[in-house]
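Minutes, project check-in
Item: structure for the 303-residue chain
Input as provided by the requester:
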Amino acid sequence: MRIGLVGTGTMGTPIGGCLIRAGHSLTVYDLCPEAPAALCAQGARRAESAFATARDSEVVFTSLPGPAEYEAAMLQPETGILAGLQSGAVHVDLTTNAPPTIARVGEACRSRGVELIDAPVSGRPPAMTVMVGASDAAFAKYRHLFDAVAVNVFHVGPSGAGATAKLVTQYLGYTNFIASIEGMLIAAKAGIDLEILARIVPVSAGQSRTFDNIVRGVFPGSFAAGGTLDIVAKDIALACQLARDVGAPAALGALASDIYQRAQAQGWGQEGFPVVARVLEAMAGTELRAATNVPGTNEGGEQ
C-alpha cells in the first residue's frame, strides 16, 4: 500500500519503520528537513511538502505535536494534506488531539470524499496501544495497518472516540503522577527510606505505570522520560477542556494541570515531564533522590 507520513519525530519515525517492515511503500515529510533521514535510510521517499505526501498516497498518517499543528497541516489551502488527498483516500491521525478539532477536520475531509480515522497511541511501537475512532467498515479495512505498529488495537467507536479515549488515559496517568510525587514527598519528610518505599508501591495500592518514572527520572535527578513536559502539559490541559465540554468533574486534573504549567513557566518545557517534580520539591523543601536499582520498574516512558 502507498502510505504517506507527515511528522517524523519521536513517535512518527518508529511507526514509519514498522510500516516499511510490513512491506508498505512510505513517503515522508516533516517541517524539520533533517527529521525524515532515519526513515529515508530504511527506504522511505522524502516529499517536498505535506501536499505532495498526500497526493502520492492511498493512506496518509499524521503524527504531530498537538491540535494547532495538526489543523494547520491538514487545512492549509494550497500546501495542506487535505488539498493533496484524492477522493476515496483515507487519513489516519495518530496525534493526541482535541475531539472538536477531529470533528472540524473530519467534516472538511467528508466534503472531499476522504475518511478520517483518529488513532492516537500510547507506549512505543511495535509494543504499543492504539485507540481507533472510525466506522466499522474503515476499521475492518485498515486494521492490518494498526496491527503492524501495535500489539493492543482497540476500536473505541466512531471518528473522535479514539481522541477522547486517549485524553482520558492521559488524565488518569499524569494526574496520578502528581499524586505519586506528593506521596513520595510525604514519605521523605516523614523520614521513610525512599528506595524501600519505591519497592513497596508497585506491589500495593499505589502502583501505577507512571510511578515508575519517579524511580527512573526523579531519583537520579535526570528527569528523563519518553515524553516532554510540554507534551504532557498540553495533554492534561486538553483532557480538562474535554471534561468541561461534557460537563464532567475534573478537580484533580485542574490542580495537576496548574502544577505542570508552573514547571513550564520555569522554562523546563523541553525536558522530560518528571521535571515537574522540582516544583513540588521546592514547595516541600526537600528533594526526592535515591538509588535507582529498584526491581520491577518498566523500561522507557509513557506517551
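Outcome recorded: The beta strands are 2-6, 25-29, 45-46, 59-62, 90-93, 115-118, 121-122, 128-133, 150-157.
No further action items on this chain.
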